[in-house]
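batch job 7 of whatever, protein = 3-dehydroquinate synthase
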Amino acid sequence: MHTLRVDLGERSYPIYIGRDLFATPELLAEQIQGSQVVLVSNEVVAPLYADKVRAALGERKLLSEVVLPDGEQHKTMAMMERIIDRAMADGHSRNTTFVALGGGVVGDMTGFAAACYQRGVDFVQLPTTLLAQVDSSVGGKTGVNHPLGKNMIGAFHQPRAVLIDTDTLQTLPTREFAAGLAEVLKYGLICDAQFYRWLVVNMPRLLARDEAALAEAIERSCASKAAVVAADEREGGVRAILNLGHTFGHAIENHQGYGQWLHGEAVAAGMVMAARMSAARGWLSEEEVQGLVDLQRSMELPVEPPPEMSLADFQTLMARDKKVIDGRLRLVLLREIGSAVIVDDASEDELQKLIAPG
Ligand SMILES: NC(=O)c1ccc[n+]([C@@H]2O[C@H](COP(=O)([O-])OP(=O)(O)OC[C@H]3O[C@@H](n4cnc5c(N)ncnc54)[C@H](O)[C@@H]3O)[C@@H](O)[C@H]2O)c1
Ligand SMILES: O=C(O)C(=O)C[C@@H](O)[C@H](O)[C@H](O)COP(=O)(O)O
Ligand SMILES: [Zn+2]
């Protein structure tokens, strides 16, 4: 087992990474103060792992369980309220702990419910997708979607601990696995050129789910995320680099009504768009953009925006992005591989070229 730490003063917490962690004696139980727990999962993950987690929680005076419907289209206020309703109905007090068992959708909603319940209770992340293990379980961004915009309702609320049981990846479908790798690639692109080069070389091993390669990719991703979050917990500045590809990606997800392209797939298309814009500004070479395109193709990730989306669609949806300040669109671009920059001067012409290249 490897342990990393997110350094945030009194809100600091550990990230444990290892095999079969849900069955590691006492590890989960030790993260939870008090004897009350609300375990939140979904209809796909609960049948796979809830028994193990229940056993790891040990004897509890009060244990409630919420099994949510599966999918991004259910990342809503209504489902978040379902968690709150269960906690209220079962009489959970302020010293309860919410435990999120699942991917980013379950984690984001459970964290948001924990942030709101009685003005804030503890929560622990048990991420079971690659995407959740390398990204969403760390950093305390919680929330739900609004029909008009992605993650528009939420709160910053840090977990007490993150337990990454890498064995759970064995049951993850291929498409979900690749979507998680998109966010892994993001760290190389924004802040770690050496890691990016390592990913290019080791992608075949990762796609084959080689254990050693996966463990290294998860650890390096979590270390990057922890460092960025520790530097800027509430996205006043540098944390926005974690949004590479997301301004475009969130527009795509929203345009599709959520749940057609996976989050990681939409981000993958968005990262190529950001790379193309960076190349047009002379910051990346055409070879570097092609390298990214080839890599993402090898991962079966999208490299173009959906053909049905027009410039106007992107403009309307991106105008609602949370990074917009006083009506000015802010985009994360790449100064070079491994170094992100935030720009606020993207022209219509530059955007048009991304949507209808050539
Ligand atoms: N809070 C953050 O910082 C942050 C970061 C990145 C993404 N996100 C959010 O995370 C969400 C995407 O997360 P995701 O990609 O994990 O999607 P997800 O939570 O929908 O999970 C993907 C699919 O895999 C299934 N699943 C989960 N674990 C499994 C397992 N071990 N075996 C088999 N199936 C399993 C799920 O039921 C689901 O069908 C988006 O809503 C995105 O906005 C948040
Ligand atoms: O942790 C962050 O900060 C991120 O931006 C990570 C992203 O991968 C993630 O998708 C996040 O939920 C996006 O946040 P948003 O503020 O753009 O909704
Ligand atoms: Zn993301």
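notes: The chain has 13 helices and eleven strands.
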